[in-house]
Specification:
Elements: H1 3-6, H2 20-32, E1 42-49, E2 55-62, E3 68-72, H3 86-96, E4 99-103, H4 115-129, H5 131-134, E5 141-146, H6 148-162, E6 171-174, H7 185-189, H8 198-209, E7 232-239, H9 243-255, E8 260-269, H10 279-295
Parallel strand pairs: 3-4, 3-5, 5-6, 6-7, 7-8
Antiparallel strand pairs: 1-2, 2-4
Length: about 300
């Protein structure tokens, strides 16, 4: 493990989703301790996207943005909201120059699949229809996120393909959660790694799926056909149960003819980029912004 990251492991809370309410409170406390980048050079606005029910979003508009990303927070489908994601969404807007539409999707277990995906797709459709109002090209709208949010982004790309729209320019998948089966080598070996354990992954999928069987739109790794999907950037952490499902998905996208950039970050663990003082975290975050900037360029 990267020594700069290893020093922080004792400070990380216990990985546990058995009590969703307590987990959300702990997650919010962690997020509140994160430094927020300066947002003076962008407009930040809270909106509600019409849907049933309405979906809260927070829109970050840098100057002279060309494109936008529908951005989805992590938290195992159970934790997180617009406030916990605020430091990351601000950072993404600043580094990429894109309009960032951060989505406050409904959380499990109170709202199991497909509630969160329905919310994401409602926002995606709204963004395409309101591109002129957002000041962006409707052909330059991406989806992306961290962890469970990255899994939702991949699922939204699959659903948009299967339903013929709206068009998605790019998918930015950071440490995605894609597979409920936990059968990969990393899922079987990394059972007690920092922040993400085998038990926590099992709880996450149990809360999200509820009593429904896993479908490709719930767990994208189950999709048999990955052709005709948007180009993708996938980042994985070396010491993470989700690592191999991200790598496998990247390889399968490539084999289906989808352009892919895959970056396996040596010495990192799930969510370790939150340790901003580590040099490897600074490189990870800078790369996310640079990749999105390139993807949405002319």
């Amino acid at each position: 493990m990267d020594p700069e990251l290893e020093a922080f492991i004792p400070l990380f809370p216990k990985a546990d989703l058995s009590d969703p309410v307590a987990a959300r409170e702990n997650f919010a406390e962690l997020a509140a301790a994160m430094p927020v980048p300066d947002s003076a050079d962008m407009q930040v606005e809270d909106r509600s996207v019409p849907a049933d029910p309405e979906v809260p979003v927070r829109i970050y508009r840098p100057r002279a943005a060309q494109g936008a990303i529908v951005w989805l927070h992590g938290g195992g489908f159970v934790m997180g909201d617009l406030d916990t994601e605020h430091p990351w969404a601000t950072r993404m807007a600043d580094l990429s120059g894109a309009v960032v539409i951060s989505v406050g999707y409904r959380l499990a277990p109170e709202n199991p699949f497909p509630a969160a995906l329905d919310d994401v797709c409602a926002v995606l459709t709204w963004a395409a229809e309101h591109a002129a109002e957002l000041g962006v090209d409707p052909e330059r709208i991406a989806v992306g996120g961290h962890s469970a949010g990255a899994g939702l982004a991949a699922a939204a790309a699959l659903r948009a393909r299967d339903r013929q729209g709206p068009p998605i320019r790019f998918q930015l998948l950071n440490q995605p959660g894609l597979d409920d089966r936990q059968e990969t080598w990393s899922a079987r070996q990394f059972t007690d790694t920092p922040w993400m354990t085998r038990g926590k992954v099992a709880e996450m999928w149990r809360h999200y799926l509820g009593s429904a069987p896993a479908t490709p739109h719930a767990a994208p790794a189950r999709a048999a056909d990955l052709s005709d999907l948007p180009p993708a950037y996938i980042a994985t952490a070396e010491l993470c149960p989700n690592r191999d499902e991200g790598i496998d998905y990247a390889l399968r996208l490539l084999q289906a003819g989808v352009p892919v950039e895959l970056h396996q970050w040596h010495g990192t663990f799930h969510g370790s980029q939150a340790i901003l003082s580590a040099e490897v975290s600074q490189r990870q975050i800078a790369e996310l912004g640079a990749v999105l900037r390139r993807a949405l360029a002319g």
